[in-house]
# Entry
Amino acid sequence: MKKDKKRLSKTTSIKDLTSKYFADNELGSKLLEKRIENTWNKIMDRFIIERTDGLYAKNLIVFIKINSSPLKNELRISKEKILIKLKKHHNNIKDVVFL
# Structure
């Protein structure tokens, strides 16, 4: 009987195993989105949070859905400041886009 999966010859840390599991099952991006959403809710005013309809991340770019056009324009103007605030908590974020 031939085994398809080989046993690892060296020990692997729990951190490495869980990171691989999240990457293999695409759970890492959902976890990152939730962390960014929590950060967004901490760093932004209640007014902005109430007008945020959703948030998702793809390829380390954060997309934030805003339901107010004037607010969306204001946030686009302040994009660099917002990106700096987000990068303090999540340094791997490349960009932020307001939808």
